[in-house]
Amino acid sequence: MRDTFVKTLVKLAKENKNIELVTGDLGFGVLKPFWEECPDQFTNAGIAEQNMTAVAAGMALEGKIVFTYSIGNFPTLRCLEQIRNDCAYHKANVKVVCVGGGFVYGSLGMSHHATEDIAILRALPDVAVICPADLVEAEEAVKAIVDYPGTVYLRLGRGGEKRIHESIPDFKIGKAIKVQDGSKVAIFSTGAIFEEVTGANDILKQNGIIPAIYTFPSVKPIDSDVIKHCAQEFDYIITCEEHNITGGFGSAVAEVLSGLAPKAKLVKIGLNDTYSTKVGSQKYLRAQYGISDKDIAKTIIDLVK
Amino acid sequence: MKKHNKYSSEQLAWLIRRHGIEMTHLSGGSHLGAILSVADIMGVLYAEVLKFDPEVTDWDARDRFILSKGHAGASVYAALAESGFFPVEELKTHYQNGSRLSGHVSHHLPGVDLSTGSLGHGLSVGTGMAYALKKDGKDARVFVVLGDGECNEGSVWEAALFANHFRLNNLIAIIDHNHMQSLDFNENTLEIEDFGAKWRAFGWNVIEVNGNNHAELKVALESITENDTLNKPTVIIANTIKGYGVGFMQNDILWHYRFPHDGWEYDMAVSELHANKPEGVIDPYTPAGIENPQIASESDDIFNDHTFSKTWHPSYPEQMRRVEATPGSCEREHPIQSNK
């Protein structure tokens, strides 16, 4: 996914000289195409995320569209106040890019797991939160946020994610994407956990259950129309995220449902308000913390049967 | 140096001090000590240095200005109002319900490039502005005024590294080095000297001046303009006195937070300003000064040492109180003798 990001950004930056990419000394072997093809639009700000983010705000206030780039929690939590005060409050055109949402850096340990970032960034006014599910959403998201005014958080996977969507002709920030129609159950997912949702879908099919599936590349602004529609149409809404259950995507859906009298019951799947203490790959950790395809399928089968 | 303002720097600095006293007096607002220490820096910048146009606040060729020590917001509000950005009358709304003049600097006012208030942000944002201006081949410069206590923040030094690395000679930091912060002297909080040597070690062009002396400030600022070959950012360490201009507030940390109350505090402060009023300035609040001002009595809290380390006596094996100065004086703090 990060390679798709870089490839797309190179293409856009060649056309728009106002686009700048600032890295916090990360991206070895990844950002090379950008610094080679757009050298005058590339900056290495060193290992200093607070300064990187505030510098980006200053550049944006001078008219640039600035992407900051780092991994895990470094471009977000490490410099949260710079995002809040310098970027968002000034509606600065800064796009904060995180490679490694969720358990991407599984074996590297808890410091490198971004599992509260959606909740925290979502709580900031004037920050859009975008979590692409696959390579197609990633490409569309990068194009969309260049044109989206103000501060955006783009939460990416790393590599290996599949092209699950064939194409998305009308990608819009704030709009969910329908993947398939179904009955009784609607699955909502955000980010790269979508690959587990497709796995769960296969298991469910074998059990005679066809859920509706939507991806939400945009957690904020959120597609409340789709949520409201599904709340009346289905018995259950299942939210899936590679993120803490507190304050994240599921909570954002719950916020839309609150105040309604929905037919659907909301079930949130995510990390159960815990940090990871185990060591292993992204796949392994997803299973350990109850967010694998099997866990998602089992939750739904138990509800429906 | 081109004159940009109807006031001289001395007149403007006096007005900033007078507004600062009135604004904190009316609102019960804090940080008067810092407003008074930085007043001369602000007066020189807005009277003679910064390029701006109050009619076209986003003029592309303007110099950018950031007051990173946002708690001294009243000083930039006063400078902007007296420079024509908004009515002077509005200064009285500082801190009030519905006002645009928050205690810390707000960019929702014309002439303000960046909201501040959390320390350690302004130099980084100014660095980003200077970097973008340089990339675009624009001549405007970026001025950032910081506090010395603010330099406790690690992000200041991140910005110092970046600005030197990218040779941002269009960036000028001015540190209001009033030698005190919140509870005590810098040296009794987190030892910061040799301050100039630290900036030099980070690659900056360092100029150290008396920051309450307009002539010294002007020479320093002119030297940067004249030095076209300089390929470094410049920091002016402006050694000031906290509370400068109101004798009993000088070197007394009480006036970091306390506002001048009705009675001797307000009367003595205003009277002392009036005794030193430059020609051609009208005090909008007490044009003729104060008749029969109240004077502090022996029982009043004046000329006392309010620093925290004066009364903090830990059993820690190293000496923690390192400097002191006479409250209400203009002297520089001096080291306390010790063999540690």
Indicate the low-confidence ranges of chain B by residue numbers: none
β-strand percent of chain B reads 5-15%
- Which fold name fills CATH's third level, the topology of the largest domain in chain A? Rossmann fold
Q: Can you name the CATH architecture of the largest domain in chain A?
A: 3-Layer(aba) Sandwich
**Biggest sheet details of chain B:** 5 strands, parallel
Q: How many beta strands in the DSSP annotation of chain A?
A: 12
Q: Give the number of helices of chain B.
A: 10
Q: What kind of oligomer do you see?
A: heterodimer
Q: Compute the gyration radius of chain B: what is it?
A: 20 Å
- Name of the CATH superfamily of the largest domain in chain A: Thiamin diphosphate (ThDP)-binding fold, Pyr/PP domains
Distance between the termini of chain B: 48 Å
Most extensive chain contact?
A: A-B, 25 and 28 residues
Elements of chain B, N to C (H/E): HHEHHEHEEEHEHEHHHEE
Q: How helix-rich are the residues of chain B, as a percent range?
A: 25-40%
Structural class of chain A: alpha/beta
Helix content of chain A: 25-40%
